[in-house]
Amino acid sequence: MSTENNYSQTGSIFDRLPKSEDGSLVRNESLFKGLPRSENETEYASYTYDYNDRTRPTSITVVGVLLTISLVYGLIQVLGLLPDARYLPGWVWLVLLVDYGLMIAAIVGLFTMKKYGAGAFVVQTIVSTVFGFAFGANSTALLNLVGSVIMLVFVFRKYDDME
Q1: Rounded to an integer, what distance in angstroms lies between the CA atom of residue 159 and that of residue 60?
Q2: Which residues contact 64 (CB under 8 A, 6 or more apart)?
Q3: C-beta atoms surrounding 109 within 10 Å
Q4: How confident is the model at residue 9 (pLDDT cuts 50, 70, 90)?
Q5: Residue 161, Cα to own-chain centre: how many angstroms?
Q6: Of 18, 50, 155, 162, which one has the fewest beta carbons inside 10 Å?
Q7: Whether pLDDT at 46 is above 50
Q8: Contact assessment for residue 34 and residue 128, using Cβ atoms and an 8 Å cutoff
Q9: What is the pLDDT of residues 114-143, one digit of tens each?
């Protein structure tokens, strides 16, 4: 066992952290050692970590999570239609496929801060609203439209920060 860094192989995780001679923790030791633009940055940080350092705003994350919940809930509803599938026209399934494809593109685009995510969300909102009104679910379509417009306001406030 090496005592050079004062590491202990037994005990709690705190016992294994590097300590100075007086027993206190060594400053700037972190799980993020070498992370670019941090207090622990090293000269090799840009070579060690290859990622885009853009941070996603909380509002975009919340919209993405709400869209993911909406996607899961919608797919559960579609599974409920399967027993009556033979009574539905074929174009319904095509519209559902396009609608959910656009929603997945919007979720991925927003989580990666890409402008196509905002565009896909706008088109998905239009498709799902028209689809809802076409089936006579006026109150549901209107509620979907209002909720989507509120979320779109938050998305387009950060549109210039997207790639």
Answers
A1: 10
A2: 107, 110, 111
A3: 21
A4: low
A5: 16
A6: 50
A7: no
A8: no
A9: 999 999 999 999 999 998 888 888 888 888
